[in-house]
Amino acid sequence: WAVVKYSVNEEGRAENLEVVSSEPARVFDRAALKAIAQTRFEVPTEAGQPVTADNQYKKFVFEIDQDLLDDVAFNRRARR
Question: pLDDT in tens for each of the 80 residues of the chain?
């Protein structure tokens, strides 16, 4: 998993991206940052005017398919 802190700007895009925690450390950081950067958000408003929404957080949980891991391990053994 990885937790990303970000702001949503007046155009609904994420900016000021930062991974604040992850487990295992740094393994999924790049994927989480890429996912949040590609996301388009509803434009935040205040009194009907677009504003930046700071200090937003999103936790990304990654799961690895056990069958895929088994296939990779089998293929590595087969090449030896």
Answer: 999 999 999 999 999 999 999 999 999 999 999 999 999 999 999 999 999 999 999 999 999 888 887 777 777 777 77
**pTM exceeds 0.70 for this model:** yes
Structure tokens at 44: 């935040």
Sequence-separated contacts (24+) of 47-54 with Cβ below 8 Å: 50/10, 50/11, 51/10, 52/7, 52/8, 52/9, 52/10, 53/7, 53/8, 54/7, 54/16
CA distances to 23, 38, 66 from 76, in Å:
26, 34, 15
Are the C-beta atoms of residues 12 and 56 closer than 8 Å to each other? no
